[in-house]
Amino acid sequence: MGSYRTVLVGTDGSDSSMKAVEHAAKFAAQQGAKLVIATAHFHEVEKGSWARPAAPEKASDRRAEDALGRDGGYRVHGDAHVYEILHEAGELARGAGAQDIDERSVIGAPVEALTTLAQDVAADLIVVGDVGLNSTAGRLLGSVPADVARKAKIDILIVHTVD
């Protein structure tokens, strides 16, 4: 068994996050480590509905608008969508060689969800994609990989997922 026993990777179902899942799965397989796949989402509301937009002074992560609703409101994943993302990521991870896989749905913003879950599952490594690192918005507002790297107390592997 390698030096990493538990590897955590987050996905939102996007192509780039699935590349991170695949990379994390291959790495976990090489290490003989458990792979925890997580997707973060906001509280559940009626399936397919829109929650009220956050007040500007309470919106801490404007990048969420791209994934969760361009009008500034947050599109809240229904249970089926969240578990569809996790199922697809789990299948991809199994195809990449991971054996011990745990799929987790976590309520909250991505950075806080990943860092909290890392503590909860005693992860040794968090794997994230590089989306936002080289964008203007990412440099001004921060990005998930940069924010996770600042807040996590464990090793971070940032995977190149954007062409």
TrEMBL record:
Positions of region (Disordered): 49-71
InterPro entries membership: Rossmann-like_a/b/a_fold, Universal_stress_UspA, UspA
Record Gene3D superfamilies: HUPs
Signal sequence region: none
Residue spans of biased composition, Basic and acidic residues class: 58-71
Taxonomic superkingdom: Bacteria
Similarity annotation: Belongs to the universal stress protein A family.
Protein name: Universal stress protein
Organism of derivation: Mycolicibacterium llatzerense
